[in-house]
Write a sequence for this structure.
């Protein structure tokens, strides 16, 4: 398991890439039927999905017209390959979505996936074009005076490169004159190197990003990155086949590309709302939106086209105020305020509004309605959660009684495709109260294994629990049956009857889910209960750019959370850590199983580990071992080598494929 290690984990896309590769094998070649699920939808699922069909206006085809509007061309192959012929993105795998919604899918999510699966080059207006459907996100090309201004160049070099080729092929060859990263998530900058054949093509190209961008690209995911990445494999459904019984999309987009992410550092920073820049002859007015969808993000308006770029603040889905892969929660009050700011500053003068996911909106009237709907959505969830919390309702009670008014809920763009009202309400509770609901029963409960054993014993044995869960299953009452069977599985992971029934329940819950994230969680959990963890190969695709961008101090924080505390508890020691070519240094102190770093300090009595900055990058990217670096001169030890080795021996690599649905 230790092969999946290193700072590479900080980039979300890496594990997703590996998972995607695995699923691509399953679906394209049918050579690995392990994850195929053949369970039919239950009557309860059919009834649930029929209710959804009645509640929402499926006769309204405006979104389909908008998603098709301005279509210019697509690639015919069905896949985007890299130079070696590996599949970087398989958009043809979703052809099955052209059919009517099957019993095994929530019709609202199916509809969203049909829209998200549309792919190709589209004209937004004369002068603004988007390539959509070749990665999780969109890339936008804006006509500047001398070349293309590219907004958000996808996740990997491979998909960005092909997208640019499509633009060149259809719209004529033009160079890249500037790049804009709207925010610090990798689906908005990772493919940037695909835009440039040679490094010399980058000279003079302005790279524009919001303040805090470079640090946030790394820091949002670094300290908890391993577990976040493992959970992301659940959320994006990378281990599932693409099929009506499997992954049908993510709500935000269809999937995530394979390949090499990278990053070129920004040259122009936007640090305030109202900042105006002329980029290759195009005037842009920025709204800074820090701490909402991303820690560093902006939206912008271009008077020349009366065009507004929503970035990922305004979307055709309810977004995540908490992302189930795990992350710090986001503030719905701020999020809503930023959208309101866009409304009073730009809604009435905008003729088109486009984002980095989904399709554009044309006309001030539709734009205003859309933005107001999104603004009200985040505000309602935030405020009503607090209203109910102040009445004494807690995290697990609030979602049961927080229903959106029809004026918000009936709009397709406000539906639960990515985030859900349920988990977002919990997120707003968590933002203010944390995990504890004030009830002493929840102060110090047993862990899941002990609690499971007690639960099973209190219920008179596993067979009794299974029999009752089966009755609930037959009645279509899945949620408590899942809780009860989860106790059985945690009490006895070898109980196959319980595991299989729980897998069936997760499958039915997945078929009902309107959220792509929830569906993928349920179906992946079901698959791992049935088949165990697929021990997928995890290619080492470390992004050197990202490893390079790790700030020195953050690197030591990462070391600190990987220090084996019990092992280090009686091994107090110090180490000087020096980057030999930049003269950066830090004193590392292990004390009582904790690791501290003092930037700029050193201690004459401690041994010193010297490494070149390139050596450190190679080490973190797992290109070289410390032994190799010592041998080739990139690293050097002053003092006792065994003491240095003893220091690093206390740092451990976390396992990647840890259990989630079993103890
Ligand atoms: Zn995104």
């Amino acid at each position: 398991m230790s092969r999946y290690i290193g700072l590479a984990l900080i980039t979300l896309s890496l594990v997703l890439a590996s998972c995607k590769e695995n699923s691509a094998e399953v679906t394209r070649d049918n050579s690995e039927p392990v994850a195929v699920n053949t369970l039919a939808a239950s009557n309860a699922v059919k009834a649930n999905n029929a209710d959804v069909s009645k509640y929402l206006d499926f006769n309204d085809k405006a979104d389909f017209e908008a998603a098709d509007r301005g279509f210019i061309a697509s690639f015919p192959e069905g896949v985007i390959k890299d130079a070696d012929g590996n599949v970087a993105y398989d958009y043809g795998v979703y052809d099955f979505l052209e059919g009517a919604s099957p019993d095994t899918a929530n019709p609202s999510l199916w509809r969203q996936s049909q829209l998200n699966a549309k792919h190709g080059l589209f004209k937004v207006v004369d002068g603004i074009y988007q390539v959509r459907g070749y990665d999780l996100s969109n890339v936008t090309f804006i006509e500047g005076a001398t070349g293309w201004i590219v907004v958000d160049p996808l996740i990997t070099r491979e998909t960005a490169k092909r997208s640019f080729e499509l633009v060149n092929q259809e719209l004529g060859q033009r160079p890249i004159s500037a790049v804009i990263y709207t925010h610090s998530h990798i689906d908005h900058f990772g493919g940037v190197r695909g835009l440039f054949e040679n490094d010399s093509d980058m000279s003079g190209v302005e790279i524009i990003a919001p303040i805090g961008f470079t640090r946030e690209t790394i820091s949002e995911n670094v300290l908890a990155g391993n577990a976040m990445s493992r959970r992301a494999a659940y959320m994006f459904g990378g281990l599932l086949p693409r099929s009506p019984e499997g992954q049908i999309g993510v709500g935000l987009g269809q999937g995530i590309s394979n390949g090499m992410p990278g990053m070129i550092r920004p040259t122009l920073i936007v640090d305030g709302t109202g900042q105006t820049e002329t980029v290759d002859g195009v005037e842009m007015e920025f709204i800074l939106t820090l701490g909402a969808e991303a820690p560093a993000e902006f939206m912008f308006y271009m008077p020349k086209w009366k065009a507004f770029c929503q970035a990922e603040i305004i979307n055709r889905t309810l977004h995540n105020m908490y992302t189930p892969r795990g992350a710090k929660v986001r503030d719905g009050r701020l999020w809503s305020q930023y959208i309101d700011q866009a409304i009073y500053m730009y809604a009435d003068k905008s003729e088109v509004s486009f984002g980095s996911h989904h399709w554009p909106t044309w006309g001030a009237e539709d734009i205003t309605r859309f933005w107001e709907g999104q603004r009200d959505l985040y505000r309602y969830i935030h405020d009503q959660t607090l209203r109910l919390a102040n009445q004494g309702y807690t995290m697990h009670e609030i979602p049961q009684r927080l229903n959106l008014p029809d004026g918000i809920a009936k709009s397709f763009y406000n539906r639960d495709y990515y985030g859900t009202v349920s988990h977002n309400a919990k997120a707003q509770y968590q933002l203010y109260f944390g995990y504890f609901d004030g009830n002493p029963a929840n102060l110090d409960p047993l862990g899941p294994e002990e609690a499971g054993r007690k639960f099973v014993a209190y219920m008179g044995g596993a067979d009794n629990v299974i029999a009752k869960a089966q009755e609930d299953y037959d009645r279509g009452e899945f949620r408590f049956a899942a809780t009860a069977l989860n106790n059985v599985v945690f009490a006895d992971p070898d109980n196959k009857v319980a595991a299989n029934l729980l897998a069936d329940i997760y499958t039915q819950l997945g078929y009902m889910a309107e959220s792509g994230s929830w569906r993928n969680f349920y179906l992946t959990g079901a698959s791992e209960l049935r088949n165990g963890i697929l021990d997928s190969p995890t290619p080492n695709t470390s992004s050197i750019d990202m490893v390079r961008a790790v700030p020195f101090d953050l690197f030591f924080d990462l070391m600190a959370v990987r220090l084996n505390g019990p092992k280090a508890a009686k091994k107090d020691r110090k180490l000087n850590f020096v980057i030999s070519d930049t003269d950066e240094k830090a004193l590392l102190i292990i004390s009582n199983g904790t690791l501290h770093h003092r930037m700029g300090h050193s201690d004459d009595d401690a041994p010193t580990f010297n490494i070149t900055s390139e050596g450190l990058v190679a080490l973190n990217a797992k290109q070289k071992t410390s032994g190799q670096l010592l041998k080739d001169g990139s690293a050097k030890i002053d003092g006792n080598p065994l003491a240095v080795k003893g220091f690093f021996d206390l740092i451990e690599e976390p396992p990647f494929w840890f259990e989630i649905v079993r103890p």
